[in-house]
Amino acid sequence: MIIKSMSRKSKSFSQLYDYLKRDKNSFSFVRNMYSNPQNRKELIKEFYQNAKHIENSRGKVFMYHELLSLEKNDLPLEKQKEILYDLAIKYLELRASEQLSLGVIHQDKEHIHIHLMISANKCMDNKRVRLSKKEFSNIQKNLELYKNQKYLELNESKLYQSKKDISKSKKNEQEIKYKRKETTMKDKLKEFFTELFEKSTSRLHFENQLKNLGYELYEKGNTIGVSYKNKNYRLKTLSVEKKFKDMFKRFEKTKEREIKRQRVKKDRSYSKDYFRSR
């Protein structure tokens, strides 16, 4: 798997959008955005409005153009798309969890790949997100490790792994674990809640998902957990408490953005009515 990152020092969102969406039938998705990826005008406008917050801040980068590519394999095309989409979501969680993102899958070469357009700043934030070489390297290593562990049907890649990162003993442990499919309940719940926290779009959506699946959220002092089949599981023990809190922070930011958007819309409507009456 290859992971590339290129920065852009101009607000050329429309140019990059047109390049990414040159095939109108290509699969695309967005994160931390209201706009439909097919709505060129609104999506570009949302990127521009977010970029206004960093016009006077330190630095010159306004966005990133990044690429994820799978190694050659014999899997069906739809399965490759499914894997690539999952890897892109995981990558954005690690690299740009609160930034505006557009993803588009291309399949015009020997193997499919995904392009990402990522804002330089978090949603409505006045500072650019800067990653050191070490931080970006760790993201590459973690994503590759995630891919190697989850998708055994793909060839194991070691482009970003060092000997220190994967020892023989650790590698053997992972092989035994996945070959025998002996994942513990803790492993299953951690994977389930990680995915649920990432994909929930609102508090109501999250709570409905829990209820429908038979889970119940509880809080005792500083302890947050879930009950399932008369058994309690602490989110901290499952190593997902931070993801849970990050999810609610995302909900709050989304709510703030919607309130601001409605206020702007109301002000514009008032201005139009005022001039019509004159």
Q: Name the shape in a single word.
A: globular
Placed side by side, the strands forming the largest sheet appear as 1-3-5-4-2
Task: Write the element-wise H/E pattern from the N-terminal end onward.
Answer: EHEHEHEEHHHHEEEH
Strand content: 15-25%
Number of helices: 8
Oligomeric description of these chains:
single chain
Major pleated sheet: 5 strands, antiparallel
Q: How does this structure look, described?
A:
With 278 residues, the chain is α+β, with helices and mostly antiparallel strands. It has 8 helices and 8 strands, in the order βαβαβαββααααβββα. The protein has helices spanning 13-20, 40-51, 77-95, 133-150, 168-180, 185-199, 203-212, 241-277; strands at residues 2-8, 28-31, 63-69, 99-106, 113-122, 216-220, 223-228, 231-234. A 5-stranded antiparallel β-sheet has the order 1-3-5-4-2, with helices on both faces. It has a 3-stranded antiparallel β-sheet with strand order 6-7-8. A hairpin with a 2-residue loop joins strand 6 (216-220) and strand 7. Helix 3 (77-95) packs antiparallel against helix 4 and helix 6 (185-199) packs parallel to helix 8 (241-277). The longest helix has 37 residues, at 241-277. The chain is globular and about 55 Å long. It starts with a strand and ends with a helix.
